[in-house]
Amino acid sequence: MATRPMRIRAKESGGVVSVKVLMAHVMETGQRKDSEGKIVPAWHITNVKATCNDKEVLSAQWGPAISRDPYLAFSFKGAKKGDKIEITWIDTKKETRSDTAEIK
Predict the structure, then answer these.
(1) What is the pLDDT of residues 15-59, one digit of tens each?
(2) Which of 28, 50, 67, 93 has the smallest CB count inside 10 Å?
(3) Considering the entire predicted model, what is its pTM?
């Protein structure tokens, strides 16, 4: 499904890493109807996880109320410039996507 990689920006300043992520996903709620009047099945991200240096720094459970191509921003401590951060999501079809970025 997700042929486009996530756009991840991570920047360290004063010991705090700020992360911004743009994910490509249709995020269907299961409540919308198509042009024929049939309900479009739910298909959305359910779990998001962020790890840095093999340590989980974010874990989130999402539902159908998140918008298409979701944007996520968060901060954490305990990493430095040059470390890698990995973002992984799983959706209702059990499809998954993982991408990494270097902390600047």
Answers:
(1) 999 999 999 999 999 999 999 999 999 999 999 999 999 999 999
(2) 67
(3) 0.90
The reported pLDDT for the residue numbered 2 is: 59
Give ∠ CA 72-44-20 in degrees, rounded to 5.
10
Q: Where are the domains of the chain?
A: 7-102
In 3D, which of 97, 76, 77, 94 has the Cα closest to residue 86? 97
What single-letter amino acid sits at 68? R
Q: Are 91 and 43 in contact (CB under 8 A)?
A: yes
% of the chain exceeding 70 in pLDDT: 97
Strands, E assignment, the chain:
7-13, 16-22, 45-52, 55-61, 71-77, 84-91, 96-102
| Residue 16: how many other CB atoms lie within 10 Å | 12
Beta bridge partners of 45: 91
Longest dimension (CA), the chain: 55
